[in-house]
Amino acid sequence: MEEYRVLLADDEEEIRTGISRKIDWTALGFSLVGEAANGEEALELAEQLRPDVVLTDIKMPFMDGLELCRRLRQSLPGAKLVVFSGFDDFEYARQAVGMGVSEYILKPINAVELSEVLTKLRRQLDSQRLERRDMETLRRRYEESLPILRELFYTRLLSGQLRPDQVQDRAARYEIELPPGLWAAALVHADLPGDGEDGQRDELVLLSAQSFLEEHFALEGCSARVILYGDTAALLVQLSGPDRLYPLLEELERLSLLSQSYLGIPLTAGVGLPCQGPEELHRSVEGARSALDYRALMGGGRVIYIGDLEPQSAAELSFEEEDQRQLSAAIKLGTPEQVEQVVRGLMDRLKQAGLSLSKCHLFLLELVTCLIRLTRSGGVAVEAVFGANFTGSVSISDFSSLEELGRWLGERCLKLHELLGRQRSDSAWKLVEQAKDYIAGHYSDEGLSVESLCSHIHLSPTYFSTLFKREVGLSFTAYVTQVRMEEAVRLLRDTDEKTYRIAERTGYIDPNYFSYVFKKQFGLSPSKFRSGLKN
User: What tens digit of pLDDT does each residue of 154-191 get?
Assistant: First the structure.
């Protein structure tokens, strides 16, 4: 099994050497990956090495062990922390335990005792690692959750909450077969006595209706599945062809009568328009729900097909919430290819609907409104996307064909994608420059930190740290150290100020720590550096 990584921090080199040599790390299942002489150095090494265990003394210069543990609890919450001290002090132990320290060991450190502690920590780490890697346990938990996950999947599918590109992936994950082809949805309502008075559904009756439909539905050339959806049983039917729709309606009529005979419960089925692919089932469900709305008018215990009652519904196409979400995500976060793909999908829907150009007007207005909203929320001038003479509205009569409309939409969407991307880059650059200016004006402040800077520029420390590292190539701490060291070099070269004064002017309250950092950066102490300049 892979060895666990250990970081050792103690300001006494003899102790570090003793621990390093006396402990049989490999035999215990560990690897000593780094040593630090103070808390500051240990924190920097921990960020780089990501150790599983940190062994630290309490009394160290620049940053003590307790402060180190407090900082590590934030940056490495999974690491095991072991603190040792030469003081039999209850207060230290109390604070250490309060910070989630695993063990507290008194100096002088006994190799046997430390080995026992490491053995104990290894067992804990092994247990955690095995738990994470125990695929059989995860599989069992997953399988136990599968019925709930499937139910949630169907609910989101029929509500239109899944992107088309998510449907097949999620279906395969939950071991559901939803092949492409023609589909239709029926929502079946059990007409209980008194239902119209209080609207309460009897769940046992609904379950009986579901079982009844699963057992008795039989239509050649069609496959179906029945799920509970709200206060109805949703029947999802894959049709072998458009000619199977009316046989489906006849089969549902048969089942409605049979249910009255078998269960004493009349069933009303609202049937939506057929759709292409399971990805579009939510549209058929909307039609089925609209059909059920006619139940009060037409009476229960029958089959109501929305295409019979609202024949023009087939010729209506709206820019829905899911369309808006997909287009917005592609424009704001996607690639140009993804933008083109979404626009192409929208135009394909228009073509498949078989609408005349004049009947696409509402769809176009809704789509353009979405683009204008995206433009304004992104701080981009509307004219930069739609042109200098844009008045805020577009007429379908401006286009001679759906192809021309598609090209125009594609160009507008790609332009907005480009401008928002440029705006983000400019915004990131401005934030980094603002941060650099703040650092330049506050590097002499010993309390300069990510938190103080982020409070000034109103950003979260996590987001800022990621952004700064990406744009500058250095972490915040490394960049501040670089600025301070550059200023220290200038002062050593151009002034005769004492080293302790230069330390203060570059943000180091402790001259010894300043010298430590300077030597680590340049390979020699500040005094030797200055002497070298004079020779």
Answer: 989 998 888 888 899 989 888 888 898 899 999 998 87
Task: Give the chain's count of helices (H) and strands (E).
Answer: 25, 11
Per-residue HEC secondary structure of 169-220 comes to: HHHHHCCCCCCCCEEEEEEEEECCCCHHHHCCCCHHHHHHHHHHHHHHCCCC
Q: Are residues 283 and 162 in the same domain?
A: yes
pLDDT in tens, 210-253: 888 989 998 887 888 999 998 889 999 998 888 888 899 999 99
- Cβ burial, residue 23 (10 Å; 0-12/13-18/19+): buried
Determine, yes or no, domain membership for 429: no
Burial 167-205 (b: 16+ CB within 10 A, else e): bbebbeebebebeeebbbbbbbbbbeeebeeeeeeeeeb
Kindly report the pTM of this predicted structure: 0.44
| Shared domain check, 361 and 384 | yes
Query: Among residues of the chain, what percentage have pLDDT more than 70?
Result: 90
Q: Are residues 194 and 234 in the same domain?
A: yes
Question: Which residue, of 71, 102, 133, is where some domain finishes?
Answer: 133
Structure tokens at 522: 């340049």
| Domain span holding position 98 | 4-133
- The tally of domains found in the chain comes to 4
Domain boundary (99, 133, 167) is at 133
On the question of pLDDT at 98 being above 70, the answer is no
Query: What CA–CA distances, in Å, run from 310 to 175, 252, 284, 290, 305?
Result: 36, 20, 13, 9, 9
